[in-house]
C-alpha cells in the first residue's frame, strides 16, 4: 500500500506544493531543483562546469551531497505519502460526519398514533399523539380534510405541543363535531399522517327532573382518571419519601404510557429514585432524600382521550447540622472538562448559612472501589467551582463538597455522578480509510512519522480564575509524535524574563491544569512545554497576564418582592432579579411570620424563575418574605422584605353553577333551580344571573338585572307550548363568572299531574366513614295534596341501579344515612310523596366518598368560665370569608332570642341564654368556604341537666381544696396547722377564726398565707391546753369562696399535746450526747445474740456504760467515730435473761436506753435463736459407731429451746433401750443400738421453732445402711479390743528419789483379759527376778521391790504388760542419792 502511494506521488510532483510542511522543508526542495542523474552530475563536475553562485564539490564532499540528496528524497516522499493519506482520511471523516447527520435526520414518524373516541354531547375530548423526527417536524390538524384554525372558532379548539406530545382539545362537543380528525407531521425529509374518528352521541334521558341520564349499554368503557394524587410534600435530608397517584380504574395496557418528570425533565430509575406501577396506582420513591430532589414533580398519564397529569411541589429541608451552627450542605455537584488527570467541579451554595456566613468549601474525592474520601484542597475555596488535578488516568471518581463557616463544617453534599478520567480527544485522532482490502483504522500519530521532540503546545489561555487558582487550557502540539506526552507548566511575573515551573510535584498528562500558589494582586503569565522521552519542546506562546485579585463579589440582591395569595396554605412570591445576572444560578426565598423574627428557608434548591409558590404556611397568619440571589460567588444580601400578607384563599371568579332543573311549569311561567358553583370554595356567592333561550330563535336573553339571592327563580311572560333552555351565572366580589352549560329544553306547559314535583338542592353534610346527613328542599310543585313524606334512593359508583334506602317515608327534609361502606362512592336522589303517589325524582346529588377526612373536628359541648352552656366548633379550614351556619333539628333557628352565636377566627360558639327543656334537640353547623366542614350534636335532657349543674358550679364557684387541714409537729415542740387549696389570685382574702373569734398573727401564734400556692398555716410555738378548740379559715377570691374548719378537741387534742411535749423533750435531750438509735437486739447467723445502739453528738470526753440488772458489763465494744456500741452473747440461755441498760454522758448531759429482755421478750429471742438455728441445721448424716448407727445434724447453737421430733417412715420415734435421742451445742442426734433390718427407711427430723418447722430428711437405704453397719462392726470390734487390751491402769510415779541402803517398792495396777504378762526393764533391758530385784504379781497388782538400793540402781525403769489384744508400757525414773545429800 505504501509503495503504491509513493508511486502515485512521484507521478504527480505538483502535489508537493500543497504539503502542510512546505515552509519547513523549503531548503530541501531547493537542493533538488533541477533533478539530474548521477552520471550527468559526475560529468558536469568533471568538466568543471558550474552554475553561477555555486561551488564545485570534490571527494568526500560529493559523497555528502549524494547522501543529502537521498535523505531529502526519502523525506519528501514520506511527507508526500503522509499528506495524501491525511487528505484522504479527512475527506473520509467529512463524509462520515455528513453520513451521521443524514442518518440522524429522518422523516417524521408517529410513535403513538391517534385513537378513536366516542363521547356524549357537551363533553370535551382530547386527541393525543407522539411524533418524532429530525429536524423537529411541524404538526397540522385537520377535520374531514379541512385545516383546523383555532382562531376561527374561539374557545372551541386548543392545540398544544408538550415534550413531543401533540394534543388537540375539543370543548363542549356537539354532533357536528363528529368526523375524521388527522394530524400531519412535516419536515424537510418527508411527512407522516395519523388519523382517528370522533363520534358524538346525544343524551337519552327523562325530560322531567333535570339531568337524569340513561346510558347505552354499548357505551365505551370509562376513561381512566387520577382520583387520588400526591400532595405537596415536605421531606428531610436523609429520610425517604414516596409520591403516589391512584387511578379510577385499572390501567390495563396503559402502564407503559406513564412518565414522571421533575421540573419538566423526564425521570428514570436510578439508585436515587425508584418507580413502580400497578393496575391501580403508580408510585415514585425517593429512598434517600437530597436537596437535589426538590422541585415540581409531575405524573403524566396518556389515556384514550388524551393525557392527564398531576403536579405538586416537593420541598426538602436541611438535615440536622453536623455541628451546632454549621451551614447546610451544598448541592448539585457536577463534573466538567473531564480529562486524563483533571476534572473541573462545580456546585451550588446552600440556602442556610448557619450561625455565620459561609467562608469556603472543601472538595473531597473518592476512587470507585476504595473506602476513604480524600480532601482535594487545603485552603477553603470561596467560589462554587474548583479544578481537581493530579488524578490517575482511566480511573473512576466521585466528588462531594462540604461548606465551612465559623461554627464548623456542614454535612457533605450528595456525591456526584461517577466520571472516568480519559482523554476526550482520543477518538478524534483515529480515522478509518476505505481501501481495496477493507477499512483500515489509522491514527494521526502514525501519519506524523518519526517525530522525536514534540512541537510546542498552542492556543494557551486562562479559562477560569478562582480565589486560589488559575485554570489553564491549551491545544496539544501538532504533530505530537507517537510517544506519550506530558507537560511542564511555567509561570512568570508579568514583565519579567524569569520563568518558574508551576507543577513541580504534580505530573500533567492532559492539556488542562490549575496553577496555585499565586500571589494576590500580582500579574502572572503562563507558558507550557510538551515533553516526551526524546526531550522537551520549545515553550508555547505566553498567556495573557492575569491576577487572582479579590474574590468576586456576590450578585446584588433581588428587589420589588411582592406576595400574592395562592391557596389556603400557600403564597406566590414574585420579585425582580439583579440588574447584572451574570453567573446567576437562581434564587433562595425566605419566609417569616410577622412578630416572630423566625426566618425559615422556603426552598433548598435555587429556582431559576422570578416567582415561587411558598407552601406549608398556616392559614390566617401574617407573613413577610425576602429573597437572595445565588451565584458561584455565594449568596447575595437579603432583599427588602415584602409587604406583609395574611395567608388565605385567594378570591377568584366563581365557576359556573350546574344542575339546572325544572321545578315547576305554568301556562306562561317556569321555576328553575340550580346548584351553587363548586369552585372556588372560599369567596361568598353574592347572587346569580339567569339567561333563557327560545329553542326556535336560539338567542340568549337576560332574565334578571339584579342578582338573585336564592338558587331558584320564577321566569314569567313565557309562551305556552314553547321550549326553552336556561343558563346561570354566579357572582362574587371578584365579578361574574362563566355561564353554566345550557340546560335541557324545558317545555312551558302547565303541570296538572296529581303527584308532587321533584325536590331540589340535594346536598350532604357531616360525611364520615360510614354515615352522612342528607338534606334537600321540598318540591315547589306539591301536586293534588300536600307532601306527606320523602323516599331516599342511592346508587353506588359504577352502578346504574337506584336502591331505596328508607322503607318508610321520612316526613322531614333531611335524613341520616348510616351503615355505608367505608371508602365507597355514592350518589343520592329524593322523591316526594303525597296522597296521589310518588312524584318525580330530584336531580342526583354530587358523588360523595364515605371517609372521615384527616383533621375532622366535632362539636364540643361544655360550660365556659362564666357558666354559659355552649356548643362550639373549631376548624382550621375556616377562612376569613367563612360563615358558621347553625341549625336546630336541621332547620334555621327560629328563636334567636334563646341563643347567642359568637364567631372568632376559626371558632364559632352557640350559647344557650336560658337553658330549658325546649332547648333539647340536634344542633348542627355548616362552615361555608370550606370543603364540606360540618358537624352535629344531639343535646339530650339528661346531658342538659348535667350541664346546668356544672353551670351553677361555675357561676357560684367554690375554692377547691388540695389538702385538708393537717397537723405537723416541728422542732422544739412547735405545732403547725396547715391546709392547701388551689392557687389563688393576689387579691384573695383570708379570715382566721379560733373558737368563733377572729384572730391575727402573733409571735406565739404566727399565721402565714401563700396565695400563689394556696397554703394557709398557723404555727403555735408552745402548744398548751389553751389551744384546744376549732380553727376556721374563711377564703374569698373574686366570686369563689371557701370555708375550712379543723376541730382539735378531746382525744385528738390530747394526742397532739402529748406529741408536742415529746418533741420538745426530744429537742432538749439532743442538746447533749444522746441515743440516735436505742438499744435493740438481733440474732446473728452464728446464733449469737447481738445488742446494739448508736449515740450521736458525742465528744472525746463522752463515755458509754452498759449494765445488766444493775451490774456493769465490761465486754462491750464502742466506736467513737461511728457512735456504734454493741454487746455479743454466745450460746444464749436463760441466764442471759434480764434488764439491759446503756448510759452515755459527758459534761453537757446524759441519756440512757433500757432494753428489758424478760418473759415474752426473752422468749422471742429464744424463738429467733431457734429459728436461725433451724435454718442453719445441716442435712442429716449417718455415722457408724461402736454402739450402733448414729444419725445427726450439725447445728450452730444449743437447740434446748426447740422442739425436736424424729420420724421413721412418717412414724414418730420415742427413746427406748435400742434408740436414744439427744443434742448438744453442735449436734442433734439419734443413736440406734444393735441396728437391724427394721431400722432401714426414711428418717425425718422436724425442728419446730415456735412458728415454723424445719425438716431434714435422710433415706437410710440398703447401701447406706450396709455401709453404716459395716462401720459399726469394725468400731465394735475395736472397742472390744480396746476394753480387753493389756493396760497399766495405775502406774508408778514419773520420778522417785531414794537414799542409799533404803528399800524401793514400786506398785502398779494392771488390767486385761486374758491376764497380761508382766515384764520389768531397766534402761530398756529386761530384769530377772532374784535376790536384788523382786517381782510379785497378785492378780492385777504388780509389785517391784529392791531391798537395799545402791547408786547403781539409778536409771529408767519400765513395766511392760501384754496380752493378745495389745500391750502398754509405764516408765519411772529412779534416782539414788547418798547419805547426807538432799
UniProtKB/TrEMBL annotation:
<protein>
    <recommendedName>
        <fullName>Myomesin-3</fullName>
    </recommendedName>
</protein>
<feature type="domain" description="Fibronectin type-III">
    <location>
        <begin position="758"/>
        <end position="855"/>
    </location>
</feature>
<dbReference type="GO" id="GO:0055013">
    <property type="term" value="P:cardiac muscle cell development"/>
</dbReference>
<feature type="domain" description="Ig-like">
    <location>
        <begin position="1286"/>
        <end position="1373"/>
    </location>
</feature>
<dbReference type="InterPro" id="IPR036179">
    <property type="entry name" value="Ig-like_dom_sf"/>
</dbReference>
<keyword id="KW-0393">Immunoglobulin domain</keyword>
<dbReference type="InterPro" id="IPR036116">
    <property type="entry name" value="FN3_sf"/>
</dbReference>
<keyword id="KW-0514">Muscle protein</keyword>
<feature type="domain" description="Fibronectin type-III">
    <location>
        <begin position="656"/>
        <end position="751"/>
    </location>
</feature>
<dbReference type="InterPro" id="IPR013098">
    <property type="entry name" value="Ig_I-set"/>
</dbReference>
<dbReference type="GO" id="GO:0005198">
    <property type="term" value="F:structural molecule activity"/>
</dbReference>
<feature type="domain" description="Fibronectin type-III">
    <location>
        <begin position="329"/>
        <end position="424"/>
    </location>
</feature>
<dbReference type="Pfam" id="PF07679">
    <property type="entry name" value="I-set"/>
</dbReference>
<feature type="domain" description="Ig-like">
    <location>
        <begin position="237"/>
        <end position="298"/>
    </location>
</feature>
<feature type="domain" description="Fibronectin type-III">
    <location>
        <begin position="557"/>
        <end position="650"/>
    </location>
</feature>
<feature type="domain" description="Ig-like">
    <location>
        <begin position="108"/>
        <end position="194"/>
    </location>
</feature>
<feature type="domain" description="Fibronectin type-III">
    <location>
        <begin position="456"/>
        <end position="551"/>
    </location>
</feature>
<dbReference type="InterPro" id="IPR003599">
    <property type="entry name" value="Ig_sub"/>
</dbReference>
<dbReference type="InterPro" id="IPR003598">
    <property type="entry name" value="Ig_sub2"/>
</dbReference>
<dbReference type="InterPro" id="IPR050964">
    <property type="entry name" value="Striated_Muscle_Regulatory"/>
</dbReference>
<keyword id="KW-0677">Repeat</keyword>
<dbReference type="GO" id="GO:0003007">
    <property type="term" value="P:heart morphogenesis"/>
</dbReference>
<dbReference type="InterPro" id="IPR003961">
    <property type="entry name" value="FN3_dom"/>
</dbReference>
<feature type="domain" description="Ig-like">
    <location>
        <begin position="1073"/>
        <end position="1153"/>
    </location>
</feature>
<dbReference type="Pfam" id="PF00041">
    <property type="entry name" value="fn3"/>
</dbReference>
<dbReference type="InterPro" id="IPR007110">
    <property type="entry name" value="Ig-like_dom"/>
</dbReference>
<dbReference type="InterPro" id="IPR013783">
    <property type="entry name" value="Ig-like_fold"/>
</dbReference>
Amino acid at each position: 500500500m505504501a509503495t503504491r502511494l509513493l508511486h502515485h506521488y512521484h507521478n504527480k510532483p505538483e502535489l508537493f506544493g500543497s504539503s502542510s510542511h512546505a515552509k519547513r522543508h523549503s531548503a530541501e526542495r531547493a537542493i533538488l531543483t533541477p533533478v539530474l542523474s548521477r552520471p550527468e552530475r559526475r560529468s558536469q563536475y568533471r568538466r568543471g562546469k558550474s552554475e553561477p553562485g555555486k561551488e564545485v564539490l570534490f571527494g568526500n564532499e560529493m559523497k555528502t551531497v549524494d547522501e543529502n540528496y537521498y535523505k531529502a528524497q526519502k523525506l519528501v516522499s514520506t511527507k508526500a505519502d503522509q499528506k495524501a493519506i491525511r487528505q484522504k482520511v479527512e475527506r473520509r471523516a467529512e463524509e462520515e460526519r455528513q453520513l451521521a447527520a443524514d442518518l440522524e435526520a429522518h422523516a417524521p414518524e408517529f410513535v403513538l398514533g391517534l385513537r378513536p373516541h366516542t363521547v356524549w354531547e357537551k363533553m370535551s375530548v382530547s386527541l393525543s399523539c407522539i411524533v418524532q423526527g429530525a429536524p423537529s417536524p411541524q404538526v397540522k390538524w385537520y377535520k374531514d380534510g379541512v385545516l383546523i384554525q383555532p382562531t376561527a372558532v374561539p374557545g372551541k379548539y386548543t392545540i398544544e405541543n408538550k415534550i413531543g406530545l401533540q394534543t388537540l382539545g375539543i370543548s363542549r362537543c356537539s354532533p357536528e363535531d363528529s368526523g375524521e380528525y388527522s394530524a400531519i407531521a412535516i419536515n424537510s425529509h418527508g411527512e407522516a399522517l395519523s388519523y382517528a374518528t370522533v363520534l358524538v352521541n346525544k343524551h337519552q334521558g327523562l325530560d322531567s327532573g333535570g339531568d337524569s341520564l340513561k346510558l347505552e349499554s354499548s357505551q365505551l368503557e370509562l376513561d381512566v382518571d387520577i382520583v387520588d394524587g400526591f400532595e405537596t410534600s415536605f421531606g428531610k435530608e436523609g429520610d425517604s419519601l414516596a409520591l403516589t397517584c391512584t387511578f379510577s380504574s385499572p390501567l390495563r395496557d396503559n402502564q407503559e404510557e406513564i412518565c414522571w418528570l421533575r421540573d419538566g425533565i423526564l425521570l428514570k430509575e436510578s439508585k436515587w429514585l425508584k418507580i413502580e406501577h400497578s393496575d391501580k396506582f403508580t408510585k415514585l420513591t425517593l429512598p434517600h432524600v437530597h436537596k437535589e430532589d426538590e422541585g415540581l414533580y409531575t405524573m403524566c398519564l396518556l389515556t384514550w382521550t388524551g393525557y392527564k397529569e398531576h403536579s405538586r411541589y416537593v420541598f426538602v429541608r436541611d438535615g440536622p447540622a453536623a455541628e451546632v451552627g454549621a451551614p447546610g450542605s451544598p448541592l448539585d455537584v457536577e463534573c466538567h472538562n473531564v480529562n486524563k488527570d483533571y476534572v473541573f467541579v462545580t456546585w451550588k451554595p446552600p440556602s442556610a448559612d448557619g450561625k455565620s456566613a459561609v467562608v469556603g468549601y472543601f472538595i473531597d474525592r473518592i476512587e470507585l472501589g476504595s473506602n476513604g474520601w480524600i480532601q482535594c484542597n487545603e485552603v477553603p475555596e470561596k467560589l462554587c467551582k474548583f479544578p481537581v488535578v493530579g488524578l490517575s488516568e482511566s480511573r473512576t471518581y466521585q466528588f462531594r463538597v462540604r461548606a465551612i463557616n465559623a461554627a464548623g463544617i456542614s454535612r457533605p453534599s450528595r456525591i456526584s455522578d461517577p466520571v472516568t478520567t480519559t482523554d476526550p480527544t482520543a477518538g478524534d485522532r483515529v480515522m478509518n480509510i476505505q481501501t481495496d482490502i477493507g477499512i483500515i483504522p489509522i491514527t494521526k500519530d502514525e501519519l506524523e512519522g518519526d517525530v522525536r521532540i514534540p512541537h510546542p503546545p498552542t492556543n494557551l489561555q486562562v479559562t477560569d480564575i478562582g480565589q486560589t487558582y488559575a485554570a489553564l487550557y491549551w491545544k496539544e502540539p501538532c504533530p505530537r509524535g507517537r510517544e506519550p506526552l506530558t507537560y511542564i507548566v511555567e509561570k512568570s511575573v508579568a514583565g519579567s524574563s524569569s520563568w518558574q515551573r508551576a507543577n513541580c510535584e504534580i505530573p500533567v498528562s492532559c492539556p488542562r491544569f490549575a496553577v496555585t500558589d499565586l500571589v494576590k494582586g500580582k500579574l502572572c503569565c503562563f507558558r507550557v512545554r510538551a515533553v516526551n522521552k526524546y526531550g522537551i519542546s520549545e515553550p508555547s506562546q505566553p498567556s495573557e497576564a492575569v491576577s487572582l485579585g479579590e474574590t468576586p463579589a456576590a450578585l446584588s440582591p433581588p428587589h420589588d418582592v411582592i406576595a400574592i395569595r395562592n391557596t389556603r396554605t400557600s403564597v406566590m412570591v414574585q420579585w425582580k432579579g439583579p440588574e447584572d445576572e451574570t453567573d446567576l444560578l437562581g434564587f433562595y426565598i425566605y419566609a417569616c411570620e410577622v412578630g416572630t423574627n423566625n426566618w425559615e428557608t422556603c426552598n433548598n434548591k435555587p429556582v431559576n424563575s422570578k416567582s415561587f409558590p411558598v407552601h406549608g404556611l398556616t392559614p390566617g397568619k401574617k407573613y413577610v418574605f425576602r429573597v437572595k440571589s445565588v451565584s458561584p460567588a455565594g449568596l447575595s444580601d437579603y432583599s427588602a422584605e415584602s409587604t406583609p400578607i395574611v395567608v388565605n384563599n385567594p378570591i377568584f371568579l366563581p365557576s359556573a353553577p350546574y344542575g339546572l332543573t325544572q321545578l315547576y311549569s305554568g301556562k306562561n311561567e317556569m321555576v328553575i333551580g340550580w346548584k351553587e358553583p363548586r369552585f372556588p370554595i372560599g369567596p361568598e356567592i353574592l347572587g346569580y344571573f339567569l339567561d333563557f333561550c327560545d329553542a326556535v330563535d336560539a338567542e340568549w336573553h337576560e332574565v334578571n338585572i339584579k342578582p338573585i339571592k336564592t338558587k331558584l327563580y320564577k321566569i314569567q311572560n313565557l309562551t305556552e307550548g314553547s321550549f326553552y333552555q336556561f343558563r346561570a351565572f354566579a357572582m362574587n366580589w371578584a365579578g361574574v363568572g362563566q355561564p353554566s352549560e345550557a340546560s335541557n329544553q324545558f317545555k312551558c306547559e302547565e303541570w296538572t299531574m296529581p303527584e308532587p314535583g321533584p325536590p331540589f338542592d340535594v346536598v350532604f353534610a357531616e360525611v364520615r366513614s360510614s354515615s352522612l346527613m342528607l338534606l334537600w328542599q321540598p318540591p315547589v310543585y306539591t301536586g293534588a295534596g300536600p307532601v306527606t313524606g320523602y323516599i331516599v334512593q342511592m346508587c353506588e359508583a359504577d352502578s346504574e341501579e337506584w336502591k331505596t334506602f328508607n322503607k318508610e317515608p321520612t316526613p322531614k327534609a333531611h335524613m341520616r344515612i348510616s351503615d355505608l361502606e367505608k371508602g365507597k362512592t355514592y350518589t343520592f336522589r329524593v322523591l316526594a310523596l303525597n296522597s296521589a303517589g310518588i312524584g318525580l325524582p330530584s336531580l342526583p346529588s354530587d358523588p360523595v366518598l364515605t371517609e372521615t377526612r384527616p383533621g375532622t373536628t366535632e362539636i364540643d359541648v361544655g360550660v365556659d368560665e362564666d357558666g354559659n352552656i355552649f356548643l362550639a366548633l373549631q376548624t382550621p379550614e375556616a377562612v376569613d370569608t367563612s360563615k358558621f351556619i347553625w341549625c336546630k333539628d336541621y332547620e334555621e333557628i327560629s328563636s334567636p332570642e334563646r341563643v347567642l352565636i359568637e364567631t372568632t377566627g376559626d371558632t364559632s360558639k352557640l350559647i344557650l341564654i336560658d337553658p330549658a327543656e325546649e332547648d333539647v334537640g340536634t344542633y348542627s353547623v355548616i362552615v361555608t368556604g370550606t370543603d364540606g366542614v360540618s358537624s352535629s350534636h344531639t343535646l339530650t335532657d339528661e346531658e342538659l341537666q348535667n350541664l346546668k349543674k356544672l353551670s351553677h358550679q361555675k357561676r357560684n364557684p367554690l375554692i377547691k381544696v388540695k389538702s385538708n387541714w393537717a397537723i405537723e409537729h416541728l422542732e422544739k415542740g412547735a405545732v403547725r396547722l396547715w391546709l392547701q387549696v388551689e392557687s389563688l389570685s393576689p387579691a384573695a382574702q383570708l379570715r382566721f377564726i379560733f373558737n368563733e373569734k377572729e384572730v391575727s398573727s402573733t409571735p406565739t401564734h404566727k399565721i402565714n398565707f401563700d396565695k400563689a400556692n394556696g397554703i394557709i398555716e398557723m404555727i403555735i410555738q408552745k402548744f398548751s391546753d389553751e389551744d384546744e378548740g376549732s380553727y376556721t379559715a374563711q377564703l374569698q377570691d373574686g366570686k369563689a369562696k371557701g370555708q375550712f374548719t379543723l376541730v382539735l378537741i378531746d382525744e385528738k387534742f390530747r394526742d397532739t399535746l402529748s406529741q408536742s411535749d415529746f418533741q420538745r423533750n426530744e429537742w432538749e435531750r439532743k442538746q447533749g450526747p444522746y441515743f440516735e438509735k436505742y438499744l435493740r437486739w438481733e440474732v446473728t447467723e452464728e446464733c449469737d445474740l447481738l445488742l446494739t445502739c448508736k449515740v450521736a453528738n458525742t465528744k472525746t470526753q463522752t463515755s458509754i456504760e452498759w449494765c445488766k440488772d444493775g451490774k456493769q458489763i465490761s465486754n462491750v465494744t464502742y466506736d467513737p467515730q461511728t457512735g456504734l456500741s454493741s454487746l455479743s452473747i454466745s450460746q444464749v440461755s436463760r441466764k442471759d435473761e434480764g434488764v439491759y441498760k446503756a448510759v452515755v454522758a459527758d459534761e453537757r448531759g446524759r441519756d440512757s436506753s433500757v432494753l428489758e429482755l424478760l418473759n415474752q421478750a426473752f422468749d422471742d429471742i429464744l424463738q429467733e435463736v431457734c429459728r436461725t438455728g433451724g435454718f442453719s441445721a445441716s442435712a442429716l448424716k449417718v455415722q457408724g459407731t461402736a454402739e450402733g448407727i448414729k444419725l445427726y445434724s450439725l447445728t450452730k447453737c444449743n437447740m434446748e429451746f426447740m422442739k425436736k421430733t424424729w420420724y421413721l417412715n412418717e412414724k414418730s420415734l420415742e427413746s427406748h433401750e435400742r434408740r436414744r435421742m439427744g443434742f448438744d451445742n453442735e449436734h442433734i442426734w439419734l443413736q440406734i443400738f444393735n441396728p437391724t433390718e427394721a431400722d432401714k427407711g426414711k428418717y425425718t427430723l422436724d425442728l419446730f421453732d415456735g412458728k415454723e418447722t424445719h425438716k431434714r430428711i435422710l433415706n437410710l437405704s440398703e447401701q447406706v445402711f450396709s455401709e453404716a453397719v459395716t462401720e459399726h462392726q469394725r468400731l465394735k470390734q475395736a472397742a472390744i479390743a480396746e476394753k480387753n487390751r493389756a493396760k497399766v491402769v495405775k502406774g508408778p510415779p514419773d520420778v522417785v528419789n531414794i537414799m542409799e541402803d533404803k528399800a524401793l517398792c514400786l506398785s502398779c495396777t494392771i488390767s486385761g483379759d486374758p491376764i497380761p504378762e508382766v515384764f520389768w526393764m531397766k534402761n530398756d533391758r529386761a530384769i530377772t527376778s532374784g535376790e536384788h530385784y523382786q517381782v510379785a504379781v497378785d492378780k492385777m497388782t504388780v509389785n517391784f521391790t529392791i531391798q537395799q538400793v545402791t547408786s547403781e540402781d539409778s536409771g529408767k525403769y519400765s513395766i511392760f504388760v501384754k496380752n493378745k489384744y495389745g500391750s502398754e508400757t509405764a516408765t519411772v525414773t529412779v534416782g539414788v542419792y547418798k547419805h547426807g545429800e538432799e
